[in-house]
Specification:
The chain is built from 4 helices and 2 strands; from the N terminus they run αβααβα. It is mostly helical.
């Protein structure tokens, strides 16, 4: 009698489970989506000589605004942070 060839079946691979779907792109960007890395990546460069607290404050002030891209939002936040920081510290009384 002839011996039958037996082949082992490989377990089914889960290709669909391994690949995650790409998240849907946001159509609008808010100031809350901006971080300092976005500001430093802007070309042409913007002045980033503001304190981190001013950056957070600018993001809060522009919270309701929406932008078409992260670059537009980062530029607006940087400009607002500079605007608030150039007013200077409050004057002393006395």
């Amino acid at each position: 009698m002839a011996a039958k060839k037996t082949t082992k079946k490989k377990p089914a691979t889960k290709k669909a489970a391994g690949k995650a779907k790409a998240p849907a792109k946001k159509e609008t960007i808010t100031a809350a989506d901006v971080n300092l890395g976005h500001v430093f990546a802007l070309r042409p460069r913007v002045n980033a000589s503001f304190a981190p607290e001013r950056f957070r404050r600018a993001k809060d002030l522009l919270a309701e605004e929406t932008y078409k891209s992260v670059a537009d939002a980062a530029r607006a936040v940087a400009e607002k942070a500079l605007e608030t920081s150039q007013k200077g510290p409050p004057k002393r009384r006395g």
